[in-house]
Amino acid sequence: MCHEPRLLIVGLGLIGGSLAAALRVSGFKGQITACDPNANEVALGVEMGLINAGGTQLSQLLDGVSMVVLAVPVLAMERVMQELSEGLSAAATNVVITDVGSTKATIRECAERVFGCVPPNIVLGHPIAGSEKSGVAAATPALYANHKVILTPEPNVNAEALARVKVLWQACGAEVLQMSVERHDQVLARTSHLPHLLAFSLVDTLARQDERLDIFRYAAGGFRDFTRIAGSDPVMWRDIFIANRDAVLSSLDDFEAGLARLRQAVESGDSDALIATFDRASHARHYFDTLLNKTSYQAEYHMQPQGKVTYRVSPGGQAQGRLRVPGDKSMSHRSIMLGALAEGVTEVKGFLEGEDSLATLQAFREMGVAIEGPHQGRVTIHGVGMHGLKAPAGPLYVGNSGTAMRLFAGLLAGQAFDSELTGDESLTKRPMGRVADPLRLMGATIETAEGGRPPLSIKGGAPLKGIFYDMPMASAQVKSCLLLAGLYAEGETRVREPAPTRDHTERMLNGFGYVVSREGDTCWLQGGGKLTAGPIDVPSDISSATFFLVAAAITPGADITLEHVGINPTRIGVINILTLMGADLVLEDEREVGGEPVADIRIRYVPLKGIDIPVDQVPLAIDEFPALFVAAANAQGTTRLRGAEELRVKESDRIQAMADGLAVLGVEHTVVEDGIDIVGNGNDQVASYGGGRIDSLGDHRIAMSFAIAALRASDTIVIDDCANVATSFPDFVALAQRIGMNVSVESANDV
Ligand code: S3P
């Protein structure tokens, strides 16, 4: 709730009027006055009940104000600030001044000219909301609801002033973000000013043609959608283009270059170029929709709570059927990365259309790679060669994915351009020193945030040298990062792993004709080679299959076959561990597809027993432990895991997150630093544990594991914060329902 005793809005148009309207609806108790050169607008504002009073003379309205909002056109700002500086008494230091101008650098300059510098009580801001309508008559209380307001405070800003402006906008239902003046102006030039310029220009061009009446008469949805904003206030937009000249010109240059390329493609009938551009644009548009719809995609500066998804799983149910789970996540990331760097066209089948791999795909589009799809798991990548990537316009956002961030770090360290890698809130907490440190040894210039956390800033053009790196932890991500950097390094890059980890990078590089050698625990490659495109068939992800393997392993009467699952020897820890626990699990129709072993896995219920998990299986089942803990809770006797400290730095601290959930269900367990003991209560006849409400902490695998656990619970299990299941397994709920589980999805607000 906003508690300003008296708010003065200078400029009572659509923006200022809607601010008053939204505050009124929020229950704002203070006085709202307005100043506008047009007395009719002020009178209308009073009549509409938006403002208490107002006038046309600013100097007469300043008594007792606590906050002034400048909502006048950009070029009128300086005059208004001048009047404010003369009219506000020197004692009024508690008065906060803010604005709503669409450009920030020029307004900051106004303040500097008027006040000598931007005083600490001025907080410049910009609500990203509006409409083509103008005037207070168009004011609406909903204008700012769920819209963003960008504040661009100066370093000397008064913290209380900043907080009060934030509260003002939050009271209107807006989401408040902060960024620098410079960044604001660049971002807005591209996302708002350029489209307005184009809309004005298109309508003007057509309106001047002789047959304009016919053009407008027959213009259908496309024209209307594209040109709606050409009806906007001309004065306001004139001011914006004058004020944000440089940033607009630079975005116009980029646009003209793109238009020239398309013109050329149309002229020469270059269907490949047309398809590549349209496909890129169409996918980018869908991707941005996802961003705007607030699924788990969130650009770094949009960071905020996720769209909440809750699973409610009724106890019991069956585990029956034949299923195919989506493509392997590790291989999907790598297929895009290597396909982009290859010479020629790479056709991928079985690509995982999960949010993480889609973020990787989008990042390469942002580096100029033409990628078609995905359409039902098929992706076509038009490789640009080892040195063909282009500098992205902004930070590359890799969502929830540690794999993407670490592999990208290696790959980007070898590029000629600077880059920045960001991710979601969970990723921002994960350790990146494990890749930044060895990359620095290779000569890379790479900066992390405090404590070696994301974001990562990578300087382009640093010459890399091959190193021999003895990895302190068994991590395929670190190994892959260094091999990818090694492609660009002088000489040989060697990596020794303390235990075998997934080798998809090595296999796929070999598949692209790039020699990676291995002897025992060490693999290596020579820098400076090239990749040759070839087809990639991504098998189903054994990590996703695991949830259904465990479902069948714990449910009396179960019989499930999972088709076309990747059974790479570095990934089959879950098969080995379940087999040791006594599971009836058989591999059928074993075959090799595109350099990776694949099989159908059939699993039928037999009672499980607790075991000591062999330490050498830990890296081979690293992502499968949350589900295996559920298997352990249903076994007879104790299952003991050690040597698994890496679980603590996954999408959540998976030892603790699982222990907390098991505690809710009433499963006896003991946590140790590098593992856990779980006392199973397996008995065919009765449930193994109770139900309850569990926080998945936004970790997809924790969410899915507890959903499966409900098959043997005595009561409903409710799991919060499940949106991130979409990062690796978008169809999970549908498949779980298909095998006979009683899962439903709810919004957090309904439960
Ligand atoms: C992955 C490696 C593993 C795994 C992750 C995917 C990969 O991480 O947990 O889900 O694709 O290389 P670490 O290498 O850090 O153990």
TrEMBL record:
InterPro entries: 6-PGluconate_DH-like_C_sf, Enolpyruvate_Tfrase_dom, Enolpyruvate_Tfrase_sf, EPSP_synthase, EPSP_synthase_CS, NAD(P)-bd_dom_sf, PDH_C, PDH_N
Keyword annotations from UniProtKB, A to Z: Amino-acid biosynthesis, Aromatic amino acid biosynthesis, Cytoplasm, NAD, Oxidoreductase, Transferase, Tyrosine biosynthesis
GO MF entries: 3-phosphoshikimate 1-carboxyvinyltransferase activity; NAD+ binding; prephenate dehydrogenase (NAD+) activity; prephenate dehydrogenase (NADP+) activity
UniProt GO cellular component terms: cytoplasm
Matching CDD domains: EPSP_synthase
Major localization class: cytoplasm
Reaction it catalyzes: prephenate + NAD(+) = 3-(4-hydroxyphenyl)pyruvate + CO2 + NADH; 3-phosphoshikimate + phosphoenolpyruvate = 5-O-(1-carboxyvinyl)-3-phosphoshikimate + phosphate
Domain Prephenate/arogenate dehydrogenase as annotated: residue spans: 5-296
Binding, phosphoenolpyruvate: 329, 402, 430, 477, 654, 701
Keyword Heme belongs to the record: no
Binding, 3-phosphoshikimate: 329-330, 334, 475, 477, 623, 650
Any GO BP: chorismate biosynthetic process
Active site: 623
Presence of the UniProt keyword ATP-binding in the record: no
Compartment list: Cytoplasm
Biochemical pathway: Amino-acid biosynthesis; L-tyrosine biosynthesis; (4-hydroxyphenyl)pyruvate from prephenate (NAD(+) route): step 1/1; Metabolic intermediate biosynthesis; chorismate biosynthesis; chorismate from D-erythrose 4-phosphate and phosphoenolpyruvate: step 6/7
Xref: Gene3D superfamilies: 6-phosphogluconate dehydrogenase C-terminal like domain (1.10.3660.10), Enolpyruvate transferase domain (3.65.10.10), NAD(P)-binding Rossmann-like Domain (3.40.50.720)
A Pfam family matched in the record: EPSP_synthase
EC number: 2.5.1.19
Function: Catalyzes the transfer of the enolpyruvyl moiety of phosphoenolpyruvate (PEP) to the 5-hydroxyl of shikimate-3-phosphate (S3P) to produce enolpyruvyl shikimate-3-phosphate and inorganic phosphate.
Similarity comment: family membership: Belongs to the prephenate/arogenate dehydrogenase family.
NCBIfam families (UniProt xref): aroA (TIGR01356), PRK14806.1 (NF011381)
Assembly information from the UniProt record: Monomer.
Protein name, UniProt field: 3-phosphoshikimate 1-carboxyvinyltransferase
Organism: Vreelandella nigrificans
Organism lineage: Bacteria, Pseudomonadati, Pseudomonadota, Gammaproteobacteria, Oceanospirillales
Gene: aroA
